[in-house]
Amino acid sequence: MAERRPFSVTRLPGFTAIAIITFALLYAPIATLVAFSFNGSESIAIWGGFSWRWYAIAWQNTAVQEATVRSLVIAASAAAIAGTVATLAALGTTRTRPFRGQTLIYVLVNQPLMVPEIVTAVALLIFFSGIKLATGYAGLGYLILAHSAFCVPFAYLPIRARLEGMDLSLETAACDLYADRFQTFRHVTLPLMAPGIVAGVMLAFIISLDDVVITEFVKSAGQDTLPTYMLGQLRRAVTPEVNAISTALLALTVLLLTVFFLLTRKRD
Amino acid sequence: MRPTTEATIEAGRVRRNWLLAAPALALLLVGASGPLLIVLVYSFLEPGEYSGVIWNFTPQAWFEIFLKRDIFDGTLGVADAHLTIFWRSARLSLLTTLITILLGFPTAWFIATRPQSQRALWLFLITIPFWTNLLIRTFAIMEVIRNQGVLNTLLLRAGLITEPIQILYTDTAVLIGMTYVYLPLMVLPLYAAIDRFDFRLAEAGYDLYASRLQVLRRVVLPLVRPGLIAGSILVFVPSLGAYVTPRVLGGGKNMMIGNFIELQFGQGRNWPLGAALSMLLLLIVMAALLLYVRVSSREKPHG
Amino acid sequence: MVPEPPPAGNGSSAAPGIAVEARNASKEFGQGEGAMRALDDVSVAIRKGEFFTLLGPSGCGKTTLLRLIAGFDTPTSGTILLNGRDITADPPNRRPVNTVFQSYALFPHLTVLQNIRFGLDMLGRKRAEADARAAEMLALVRLEGFAARRTAQLSGGQQQRVALARALAPAPEVLLLDEPLSALDLKLRKEMQRELKRLQRETGITFVFVTHDQEEALTMSDRIGVMRGGRILQIGGPREIYNQPANRFVADFIGETNFLAGEVEAVEGDLATIGLPCGSLTVPATGLGQGQKVTLAIRPEQVRIGEAEGLPAMITGNVYFGTDTHCHLELAGGAEIVARLQNAADDVAALDEGTSVRVSFAPGSVQVLQD
């Protein structure tokens, strides 16, 4: 019976078991959350059969509707702005001889990844409250500006990776084949970096859609996004309605990630 | 004449690079970096009566981080309440880092030793939670550990306990939540390091009579150390500044620095103290990152 | 066929029949202390319709020279002329010169046909004309059925052919090839060498070919320029380069060579007597002075082993190579040389180790190098 497993360098005792447990721990809470969003009963602990009722309730809730639209508007604007400036910045900082200030640009662009969110949130709260007082403007602009800023590194990194992986000689070849600078960019550089741009914009969109902390501090009254609305709900009685909203958001994230995954997958 | 043209071309190239980066830099200066300077200034001002600040320069807020003035006799004493919060933040962040290493290393190892065709899928399974809304993940943990949650219900049904264990709104809840939320940040850099590891080196170790544990300790760990350090920084830094997880799972009492900072801008009405705390947090995080850059650049020559 | 007709010569008088010329071209990378001189005052004139090879070890400046001709880099000083016209300041897209890149640099987002058409499209050629030309090019490189393929789906040899077709499609005045065969395995490389030769004959285009492979250079070229340290050491036909190397580096880099250090003992007309530790040797040579230190270069296949006449030597070892045997000898005085002996069908042309023999050299095979 005591059959010895053949020796393998890659096997360490217990590691596979811990890994499997980790994956289980990672997915069990999410699975619970999703499952209870379909719970028919009023209770959040007892299973009362499959039902779409919490989705229906969330769907008809005007606060949820408004927060959803606001979230999408902010995320789309932020992704578009961050994607544009990140594309330009990536073109300016890759495939070039090192130049004075390059590190500074790099640090500034990635700054939102390094500074704790709560610190940025506080900084923006102080800054924007001053501007609000001075100008009287209290629209979505502040949120869009803040979201665009912290989305820049998420858009920048995949675009930069794409550009750096690009064979420099391709543009040289285009130039050799009589393409001027604009033609080279239009026919060679842009089509080749396009997957990076799409990936970057999508990541920026997800990141913006997910943000709680900065939004919570920057938003004016009545500017709840979906996550801040949910945070507000958690303070009161928890209802499976939040599960339903969470599951819907989760589904959207997984969908976007799958597309991202397929886009960035290396084509041999 | 020609050297000048070459220098001009190079200068033009640099100018072009700056022009391309300019919109991003402008956006970040207004929407992220610039306001940090205002926070620095605010940390040296006096608190306003209801909120905001009075423009008197004073280092008072920085002293207040550690000291408090007795309301009765006006003597200075150590701010115990503040120290408790700092200690909780540091302890929970370190424990989170430790637990994510214990779970994350075998997981990363497992993924890196799968056949090439399966690896992307396993990694994808790690990245889904990573990109999923932090609030949703925290909420999912809350669902599990609540008194009427799945965990307690199961334990009750199994007869292992007679009444629900109070986990929610304790430090343990915050620890569980942060471990859950930041685990992918540990697995990903560890995977990258193990993936680069040349398994022929492990073979050489076994060939030279090392046991599995010895190979792990003497060969594998030293070589994947950069990944381990990167993962630790990636987990420790956001743990220390965590806001959402302690707020939802700690329930107001078990504050961490992030919540304490918020308090100063809300009920606390002490913007300068909040600003000083923010700057302190930023300093600690920068120190950790700098340490990481130092260590990783020193390790590079070894491969 | 060129993007813009060359204006009338701007005073610089080029010899007729010269396609491309570098005059006193230098190229430095970096500035000040860390500056690296990749090309050092190089002048070379490449004739119309010839297959010219730049040969040298890596870092000798051959690729730099090619990039100056293509226009990817600007010389620090000096000029590049095409058909006698100064093109130094022209960007690459204004030069009727095309390059086959070492990495091929095929556009991965375009098909084979689109790759080949790229230059024609950029030149604003009519659709029908470009299609016809591209089809012609596909036929020329024997890839007729591959027009719609993605370049990633091709083998190394096929990618190489596409790169060639793409560079040839606009009918450049000069085709530059930057180590195009280095990524191919030996068998494919030999095949492509013949293929390149054929293409050059059929198109009549001037080829400038860069390689570090001396055999490739010898077999394919009309003329070779041997480079080292940013300079051209010798320009000549393959036979000239092989048989009359200008200096020790050329002799050593191309083929195998025995070197013997000696001193001029006497000069009589066209003949010089060179003193060696193991005796003396009279060889045809000019421009030598008595007492001058020289190096004699002799190819291994020119070494004769006999018993009657020549320098005394002893056999120290034999290495069998299939077609021939390398016989290692030690001359009196300690110098070592190698003789390459052809193996007969039924016999290995080797002598026993330790045998004392006499060594002589084929008439006219000894080169006297003064450096």
How are the SSEs ordered, and which strands pair?
The complex is a heterotrimer of chains A (268), B (303) and C (371).
Chain A: H1 15-37, H2 53-60, H3 62-93, H4 102-114, H5 117-135, H6 141-164, H7 168-176, H8 181-210, H9 213-218, H10 226-235, H11 240-264
Chain B: H1 2-42, E1 46-47, E2 53-54, H2 60-64, E3 67-69, E4 76-78, H3 80-112, H4 116-131, H5 134-145, H6 150-158, H7 171-196, H8 199-207, H9 212-240, H10 244-250, H11 257-265, H12 271-299
Helix pairs in contact in B: 1-12, 3-7, 3-9, 4-7, 5-7, 5-10, 7-9, 7-10, 8-9, 9-12, 11-12
Chain C: E1 18-29, E2 36-47, E3 51-55, H1 62-70, E4 77-82, E5 85-86, E6 97-100, H2 112-122, H3 127-140, H4 156-168, E7 174-178, H5 186-203, E8 206-211, H6 214-220, E9 223-228, E10 231-236, H7 238-243, H8 248-253, E11 258-268, E12 271-276, E13 279-284, E14 293-298, E15 303-306, E16 311-320, E17 324-331, E18 336-342, E19 356-361, E20 367-369
Parallel strand pairs in C: 3-8, 3-9, 6-7, 7-8
Antiparallel strand pairs in C: 1-2, 1-4, 4-5, 9-10, 11-12, 11-14, 12-13, 14-20, 15-19, 16-17, 16-19, 17-18
Helix pairs in contact in C: 2-3, 2-4, 3-4
Folded structure, characterized:
- The complex is a heterotrimer of chains A (268), B (303) and C (371).
- Chain A is built from 11 helices and no strands.
- By secondary structure, chain A is mainly alpha-helical.
- Chain B is mostly helical.
- Helix content of chain B is 74%, strand content 3%.
- In chain B, strands 1-2 form a two-stranded antiparallel ribbon.
- In chain B, a hairpin with a 6-residue loop joins β3 and β4.
- The mean pLDDT of chain B is 87.
- Chain C is α+β, with helices and mostly antiparallel strands and 371 residues long.
- Chain C has 2 domains: 160 residues, Rossmann fold (3-Layer(aba) Sandwich); 114 residues, RNA polymerase II/Efflux pump adaptor protein, barrel-sandwich hybrid domain (OB fold (Dihydrolipoamide Acetyltransferase, E2P), Beta Barrel), CATH 2.40.50.
- Chain C has 8 helices and 20 strands.
- In chain C, a hairpin with a 2-residue loop joins β11 and β12.
- Chain C starts with 17 loop residues before the first strand and ends with a strand.
- The chains are: A mainly alpha (268), B mainly alpha (303), C alpha+beta (371).
- Chains in contact: A-B, A-C, B-C.
- Chains A and B meet through α1, α3, α4, α5 and α6 of A and α1, α3, α4, α5 and α7 of B.
